[in-house]
Amino acid sequence: MYKTKEYKNLFGLAGFSDQLLENHFKLYKGYVANTNKLIELRKNTHPGSLEHAEITRRFGWEYNGMRLHELYFDSLSKTPIKASDNKNIYDKICNQFGSFETWRERFIATGMMRGIGWVVLYQDKQSGSLFNTWINEHDLGHLTGAQPLVIMDVFEHAFITDYGLNRKLYIEAFFNSIDWEIIENRFNTK
């Protein structure tokens, strides 16, 4: 069974009120609880049944909701390390996108698209290429076999408490809180 990770160390994070974080943590805990419930329910349903099929379909939503939130929260810090201090990922981004600023602008533009979901900087583990990707739902749009590096939640729950509908200010706060040492550790220098 999966256990909820604690992220209370993020209370006091610049640009994120404790109320927003507390609400977000509760939502994350629901994904963990529902992932565990679905695992148990699957054990008690016949594999050919309609119930088993629907539980199996729902599993990707809950599981990915759990993991995406963990990746998101894990990369935030009250004392973030700058991207330029992490040469491998910084150099890869600059080489592939022309500059770090160009990549950042494109990532932000993806996050500003209408709709709810996630923005993910993925690395293709086979080629090493980087891709900014929009994930509309937790279980749709992932790049198979790719490593998520930077994960930004752009569902309203991630920002509306503090920023209303001003997603751009939230994205700015998010970028100011990324610990690029964590991103560097996720990065495969292949």
Short note summarizing the structure:
It is built from seven helices and three strands. The protein is mainly α and 190 residues long.
What does this structure look like?
This protein has 190 residues and is mainly α. It folds into 2 domains: 17-74; 83-186, 3-Layer(bab) Sandwich (minor pseudopilin epsh fold), CATH 3.55.40.20. It contains 7 helices and 3 strands. It has a 3-stranded antiparallel sheet with strand order 2-1-3.
Annotate the secondary structure layout:
Elements: H1 18-43, H2 50-74, H3 87-97, H4 100-111, E1 118-124, E2 130-135, E3 146-153, H5 160-163, H6 167-177, H7 180-186
Antiparallel strand pairs: 1-2, 1-3
Largest sheet: 3 strands, antiparallel
What's the order of the H and E elements? HHHHEEEHHH
- Find the CATH topology of the largest domain: minor pseudopilin epsh fold
Please count the beta strands (DSSP E, at least 2 residues each).
Answer: 3
Give the full name of the CATH homologous superfamily of the largest domain.
Iron/manganese superoxide dismutase, C-terminal domain
Work out the count of structural domains: 2
Summarize the amount of helix as a percent range.
Answer: 40-55%
Strand order of the largest sheet: 2-1-3
Distance between the termini: 33 Å
Shape: globular
CATH class of the largest domain: Alpha Beta
Overall structural class, as computed from helix and strand content, comes to mainly alpha
